[in-house]
Fold Hydrogenase maturation protein.
Amino acid sequence: MHILLVASAFNSLTQRVHAELRDRGHTVAVELALPGRRLAEAVDRHDPHLVLAPMLKTAIPREVWTVRPCFIVHPGPLGDRGPSSLDWAVQEGAENWGVTVLRAEEEMDAGAVWATAGCPMPPVAKGDLYRGEIADAALAAVLLAVERFASGTHRPLPQGTGHTRPYLDQSVRRIDWTADSTRTVVRKLRAADSRPGVLDVLCGAEWYLHGGHPEHRLHGAPGTLLATRTGAVCRATTDGAVWIPELRRRRVPGQPPTVRLPAVTALGDRLPDLPELAPSATVDTGSPGWSDISYREDGDAGFLEFSFPGGAMSTAQCRRLLAAYREACARPTAVLVLGGRRDFFSNGIHLGVIEAAADPAAESWANVNAIDDLVEAVLTTTDRLVVTALGGNAAAGGVMLALAADEVWCRSGAVLNPHYRLMGLYGSEYWTYSLPRRVGAAAAERLMADALPVSASGALRAGLVDRVIECGPGDFAARTVRLAVRLATLPGTASRIAAKKAEREREESVEPLSLFRGRELARMRRTFDDPAAPYHALRRAFVRRQRPSGTPPHLARATGPRAGTEPAGRTGPRVTGTDRADRPSAAHG
């Protein structure tokens, strides 16, 4: 079928639906629902068999849903209605939730039901859930609804009476530091991640608080700041404390939108003199509370885990992760796994920190060199096998960081965006070496030019990843540990390490890695140093969440399954495949 996705933004769920529908042979186009744009005219122009709204903040016009089949993806179980469904579920501590695909009609979220899927609700942030368990359930429900629609015989069930919840505003999100426990504060913070944040007063100014991690070993007067750690601040509650990684200044009327930043950076001179509880260049060894980088071992396998808000990696974060990587490489392991337990792997350089810098061009240059240093360290590790584990999405330089490893393992629900051009950049992170090496020159050029999301299964077919682990987000870390421990003990691993070292020396003698880096950075430097380069305006619009003036042409164009999704060229052994153990289950209605 030809399916039109109508969305308020081309967000993570819309991207996943786009990629997965294309995988299944449908042609898919996107139309953004923007103020001042007549959606009905756009729908008529596309003339789709089905209109599908994975993420829509406004109603589909009557002149569209009365003449065409329009399906709405609602992030709530059957009977749930309202604009803050998932926010309420997280804030109230729901243990199970679901997604409903329903027909658009006059009353919001009240149409006939085409499919439902349930999912668990682990105690993590709303954004993590949305990209993980909710996205898995949404995809299951969407595919079932599309299949039922295509059959032409299915009759949807009327919804009956539902429960409509109001918008979850700041009066309900507000934290009472003198009364709220750590558990309550963390729930409120998680329910507001990543938007809108929790509005609060801190150090004499109003801020939106983003992200929250419990801390039970530090204590102080409720509401006071106790310490800092890797850019986050620790704030006392009635029975402990919470780590708050990011802040966003409340917008002043008439001024441009503000940017989310690491809390310590955002507070600047307002921050009181506090102890820094985590060393900035070493692996965490058990000091109090949450940390964004940690290391552990199981047998002959080491696991360097990292999790940065939004997947962005600032200059400082790249340098700390590089120091941790070098320390991990000093350990006597045969396999080193690099990645997070769930959610984002990496989205590359930190555009927010760059935008807020006194000299964005200089910070762009520092950031890209810092991430290049990290990628180079992975590429030149020859005394063990390196595996990158993508429990969630990756984009741009984050994809290229993953490709630097010997093997790339990916959760079945992850979405990859292996391109840079939508930010006006040529790209770095040794992509001109790593990407063609895996998929071939022609496929690499096509991925960069198309600038479209790739599903996990599509990435496996293309050679971007070596193994797809079909499991829920909460099971990915355990599955990765078992696979890595097994890999470390395989009889052929030692010979693979030796062959890897010889091949790296051979390649270095033919064309040194420094040449790839030099050519890429020369083009990046010209872009950074040119105030008129589109990158600067695109970066500003992205971090300040400015609406586009229209649907980008590459999304509006109907796109089907690519003929070049098979590996076109690949060096090195291909020893793994799709791992179908621990397949997630969902109840479909």
Observations:
- The CA atoms of residues 80 and 163 lie 5 Å apart.
